Amino acid sequence: MSCLECPCACSRLAVLPCPRMYAWMYVSVTRMPSTNPSMVSFESGSESYDVWSPLGSVCGGRGTVWLARHKPSHAQVALKIYELDKCEDEFELIQHEIRTARQLRHRNVLHYLASFPVSQQLWVVMPLLGYTSASRLVATHFTDGLPEPALALVVKEVLQGLAYLHSKRIIHRAVRGSHILIDNSGRVVLSGLRHSTSINDVTHWKKTVHCYPMQARYNLNWASPELLAQDLQGYSENSDVYSVGITVCELGNGEVPYRDIPSTLMLLDKLEDRVPFLFDASTCASTSDNGQGWTSQSSCRTPAPRTLSSLFSQDLSDGLKLARQTTDSGVGGSVGGNLTALAITQRLFTPSAHDFVSRALSRYPDERPPAGELLAHPFVRQCRKFGSTLPHVVVKMTIYTVVTIM
């Protein structure tokens, strides 16, 4: 009896060289435990899957994510299909992503059930994550940003996944809202492993790396200053912690940080420690010199002491006029693009949430707590009080919405 026929409870992976023209691709079969003691084998062949409907695009339109059904087990899966003739500049990244995913096994890190070539396509079978990505949820259902309980639940599981990756000496390098996926039970998983790198060298143990990520232009807004600086000091796992801080602002404010700011100005802001923050009545203040009644966050400076609520001491018409005004949020676009002035004055993040962002976005990596240490931060520990899972906290979520994954 071969290892693939063994009924033990261990997940096993068989890797065979692919005889087709793309020699770097591998035919892989993953055996995953199901709800019953028997094992489910996800075959490496297109005839074993019914492809139903598209869920979104992948790699900038070079592939498509489909809702599919595994015929032998009747399990619903997500099927990522790459068009290889369009992925000439993505071959190495796709290969790296599949190889890395095969080596990892954690509930908060995305794994692949199988991958195999079909004609001029590459099919990758993944678990179905019905609530799509965190960024898509914000864009479609929570344009003012996620409520703090949901934000804390998401961040907690992201940190758990990062702590696992860092224990394996892997830097993710692309933590962002679109790479945070949520399944039907509320479990959060990290994707985007194509951008990851290992600190381990084939000859010695390294503390930092200096290589610049391929296709880094997609993730510049979330990158740490030391990664962007490309100096002799290099960067380490703590660069992911910086990305978590940016992602908290992205999901909490409903805006991607530095979205409409030129890359050079964004780099200057990060190097000079001018970073985003969570928008609420305590942080967004008025100014008298910007001509719009709001503190410009294009440079992400510390807010003025006077709170935004003082702006609404005017009569109702003036207040509504101010609420409709927009300004460069520095997180890209404008505050009025997603988050209105009125919404800001009606919410207040806890001090622990602001402290979490401040610690994660420290300018120097040795001042940032590791991912495992941040799990003990009060902002994350408050999840114990909720007594519910993410779908119960965020009741407006709907499943199977179209999602675009970069």
Automatic annotation (TrEMBL):
InterPro entries in the cross-refs: Kinase-like_dom_sf, Prot_kinase_dom, STRAD_A/B-like
GO molecular function, one term: protein kinase activity
Signal peptide: none
Residue ranges of domain Protein kinase in the record: 49-380
The UniProt record lists the keyword Transferase: yes
Pfam families to which the protein is assigned, alphabetical: Pkinase
Keyword flag Transcription regulation: no
Single GO biological process annotation from the record: protein export from nucleus
Gene Ontology CC: serine/threonine protein kinase complex
Keyword annotations from UniProtKB, A to Z: Kinase, Transferase
Entry-linked PROSITE patterns: PROTEIN_KINASE_DOM (PS50011)
PANTHER family membership: SERINE/THREONINE-PROTEIN KINASE FRAY2, SERINE_THREONINE-PROTEIN KINASE FRAY2
Entry's family note: Belongs to the protein kinase superfamily. STE Ser/Thr protein kinase family. STE20 subfamily.
Protein name: STE20-related kinase adapter protein alpha
Organism whose genome encodes this protein: Chionoecetes opilio
